[in-house]
Amino acid sequence: MKTNDVILQTVTKVTLFIIILFSIHLFFAGHYYPGGGFIGGLMTSGAIVLLLLAFDIKTVKSILPIDYIKLTAIGLLFAIGTGAGALLFDMPFLTHAYTYVNMPLLGKTSLHTAVLFDTGVYLVVIGVTMTIIQTIGESE
Amino acid sequence: MSLLHLAVLSPLLLALLIPFLHKHFRNIHTGWFLLPLPAVLFGYFLQFISVTRHGDTVMESLPWISSLGIDFSLKIDGLGLLFALLITGIGALVVLYSIYYLSPEKEKLNTFYIYLLLFMGAMLGVVLSDNLIVLYSFWELTSFSSFLLIGYWNHKERSRYGAQKSMLITVFGGLSMLGGILLLYIITGTFSISETIAMSNEVVNHPLFTATLILFLLGAFTKSAQFPFHIWLPDAMEAPTPVSAYLHSATMVKAGIYLVARMTPVFAHSGTWVWLVAGIGVITLFWGSFSAVKQTDLKAILAFSTVSQLGMIMSLLGIGAAALHYGTIKDGYYIVAVTAAVFHLINHATFKGSLFMVTGIIDHETGTRDIRKLGGLMNFMPITFTLAIIGTFSMAGVPPFNGFLSKEMFFTGMLRVAEMDIFSLETWGILFPVIAWSASVFTFLYSMIYVFKTFTGKYQPEKLEKKPHEAPIGMLVSPVILASLVIIFGIFPNVLSHNIISPAMGSILPSLLADGESFDVHISHWHGFSPELFMTLGVIVLGLLLFKTLSKWTGIYRIFPERLSLNHLYDGGLEMIEVASRNITKTYMNGFIRTYLVYIFSFLIFILATTMIYKDAFKLDFSNVAPIRFFEVVLVLIMAVSAITILFAKSRLTSIILLGAVGYTVALFFVIFRAPDLALTQLVIETVSVALFLLAFYHLPQIRRNEERIRFKLTNALISIGVGAIVTLIALSSHSNKMFDSISQYYVENTYKKAGGENMVNVILVDFRGFDTMFEITVLGIAALGIFAMIKLRMTRGKEQE
After folding, report:
1. Looking at chain B, which terminus has fewer C-beta neighbours within 10 angstroms, N or C?
2. A34 vs B756: CB contact, 8 Å cut-off?
3. Name one Pfam family in it (chain A) (predicted).
């Protein structure tokens, strides 16, 4: 028996980008407004879960050929690397630095190493949630 | 590192070389490499006689753990030298004997000689150490090497049993002694024996004195096989005979005697010491000789005989200690007991060593040690027979052997007890000579049994495994030397008195001597018609009578039931300890996590409640509380109702949904308490966990899905109410006890200034306290990998099973 999920799949295709945009917004806004790597990561994986619900695991895997365990590892490397980077400048571990630059188009923008750290958190959260859900989903 | 240190450590160093020598010189018996060492050491120690006979001592110190007052200091005085000579002298003879006794083809010689060397070095360390901790270290090394030697034939069950038993008992004593050493350190502040002796007056008046004394005596009594700890010695006879001769007659069992003699100047000022040492000694003396008579194994006879003789030396030391109270040596009236103890110590080592070797020869040449099978060996083994006669007659106290002399002095010492007027000895003291005399009768009796049941009587070739014949000459050398010493010391006892006995007594009773003075020991054969002589005559007459009528009265040994014996008590006790501890563990470790949670939570309640009551910590202070708003009341009600409904929910699905409701209410709380980050996270996480619960619920196996009410349990209810109450009380009190302002003001001020952000929560998470976050994401990673591993591994294992 084959079910017809046209509505679900179409709605998914539309909503997916909105959710992802929202999650990226949450991630980037973290330093100034509610949000951050953790909730941003959860939202992104929420979007992928929606994909999983609308389509099946194989399809999602072909769309997003990501090894989530490696993603987790990369995220951890980001976080630790950001921390260790401070050591190169003769500062204690995990000392952050920031500066404001004037960029074309964007205007006055802050660049902050804490964002790199948050990227680590973001990637780990996606990796972890997706690993868990995918493994349990595949386990039958 | 002086020559003396080298001498003590040399056996341990040689033990390192033994495996190489054993491997590279296969055709030479390993024992030959060993033999020179004790002989050289014996010669080395002999030269110290000229020092000690004038009451001088040699002291060598080597820093070890100086900060703790532990130095490897060695001291040679009369007592230490006597033991060192015994250890090396008999050690050399035993090694020579073992070369002929152990066959290089059948036995693992390298391990045997390594253990033996370990033991020899340890024993030298025990008797020469001046530091109590060093003494204790060597003491345990003797227990340990003795354990290895008893279990040398480890394929035999009896050997392993004997080794374990001796280990348990002697290590129990050793640990007690360590306790004693530490208490003594608390009293005196030093580990040095010489300094402790100098402070003996303070020791006696200290409140810890009795405990120290008893702990030391436990160490000495277990090592020297005193009643009731003697039970390990007969079982230690499973060791090879050279080992029994060396460890369990001449040296190790005398370590306890050494300890008592060494500590006499410290402890002997109290009546407790005199009563305990002398009393236990006499009891051991009697019980050992009484038990020896019923044995049928030659080695068992000798084992109980050793127990009995050790008891005799011990009792003499105890009584000799009483001499300290009279403080005079003018006529040596009370000191005779100490003289007898030292003299008998030497005598016992000589005759018991030779008797063990004789037993080994009989075993070796006939294949059995059972006196019921032996008999009439006199014609086959004349030399061995002669040696046995010398040894046993000396043991029985028959002139002209050395045992006679020490036994006479023993009687003298015991008779003096009744005349003493201290420590209420005048009341019960009379028992000492009586028990001593009857024990001597039994000693005479088993000595006669040993020699006559073995060598005379009917020859029973059908019961023997081999045709008996005289032992090889090499095996006879050692017992011949020992037996000749028995005769030499018997006829010319005074060769020992000034050189060995008097300095040793000087170490045992130092406070009786003025500077440069020494004990004037003179051992004479003929006292005139004294009571002692009649006692000896009585022993011989009654002993002979009993020996002749042996078969008529041995029935009395059967009156005493086996069930009440100490061995039975030991075995039963050991078993009972095992069973009891297993049962205790079974009662509380029942395997249910539920029960363990009950333990944990009740303990939590108990500890917290006790602390709160004890510290009077409960306090209520509402001055700092914000007003309660309408929304909060509503949310609390929703949360409480759903939480309580979970408890009474009939199905799992309801519980999960209610749990979700609680979670979302918490998120709402975060909203109204103005924590947007938390609210967002809580919402998502709650959703995910409810989904996971549903998944788990969906996968629960069919059979166990009994959708019934949670079984109500009074204990659970009580404990959960208790935990809730206690946590609430603590929360209220801690809120009312705020002592410092919060540090949050710093974050509020510096979030933008220093960290370039405006979301304070996030800045704290990634910047101020990013270290925590780093490890939290690590935890998440580990959890994911764990889930992945559990599920994937289970799947592959499932496939394999298919």
Report:
1. C
2. no
3. MnhB
User: What value does the mean pLDDT take over residues B597-608?
Assistant: 92
Distance from CA of A139 to the nearest CA of B (A): 7
DSSP assignment of B189-255 equals: S--BHHHHHHTHHHHHHSTTHHHHHHHHHHHHHHHTT-TTGGGHHHHGGGS-HHHHHIIIIISTTHH
- Cβ–Cβ gap A125/B777 under 8 Å: yes
Determine the Cα–Cα distance for residues B132 and B122; give it in Å rounded to an integer.
14
Which of B228, B223, B297, B147 is CA-nearest to residue B568?
A: B228
Picking from A93-102, B64-73, B686-695, B771-780, which range would have the lowest pLDDT averaged per residue? A93-102
What sign does the dihedral B611-B617-B618-B624 (CA atoms) show?
negative
pLDDT for B126: 92
pLDDT 10s digits, B713-735: 788 888 999 999 999 998 888 88
For chain A, what percent of residues have pLDDT higher than 90? 31
ipTM given for this complex: 0.91
> Is residue B798 over pLDDT 70?
no
Contact (CB<8Å) B766/A135: no
Contact between A132 and B783 using a beta-carbon 8 Å cutoff: yes
Q: What is the length of chain A?
A: 140
Which of A73, A114, A136 comes nearest B766 by C-beta?
Answer: A114
| pLDDT band for position B563 (cuts 50, 70, 90) | low
Chain B partners within 8 Å of A32 (Cβ): 757-759
C-alpha–C-alpha distance, residues B195 and B156, integer Å: 47
Q: With bands split at pLDDT 50, 70 and 90, how would you rate the model's confidence at B707?
A: very low
Residue B19: asked if its preceding bond is cis (omega within 30°), the reply is no
The shortest CB-CB distance from B756 to any of A72, A98, A139 is to A98
The shortest C-alpha distance from B779 to chain A (Å) reads 10
Chain A, nearest residue to B782 by Cα: A128
> Scanning every residue of chain B, which has its alpha carbon at the shortest distance from the alpha carbon of A95?
B767
Indicate yes or no: CB of B777 within 8 angstroms of CB of A121: yes
Q: Kindly report which listed range (B77-81, B497-501, B562-566) carries the lowest average pLDDT score.
A: B562-566
Q: B540-547 contacts: CB < 8 A, separation 24 or more?
A: B540/B396, B540/B398, B540/B444, B542/B441, B543/B396, B543/B441, B543/B444, B543/B445, B543/B448, B544/B444, B544/B448, B546/B441, B546/B445, B547/B445, B547/B448, B547/B449, B547/B452
What three-state secondary structure class fits B60? strand
Which residues of chain A from 73 to 112 reach within 8 Å of chain B, CB to CB? 73, 75-76, 79-80, 83, 93-94, 96, 98, 110, 112
Q: Which residue, B45, B21, B235, is CA-closest to B117?
A: B21
Domain boundaries, chain B: 1-267, 339-419+430-506+519-580, 632-708, 747-802
Torsion angle (degrees, nearest 10) of CA B346, B348, B350, B352: -160
What are the tens digits of pLDDT across the range B121-134?
999 999 999 999 99
Q: Which of A94, A98, A139 sits opposite B771 (nearest CB)?
A: A94
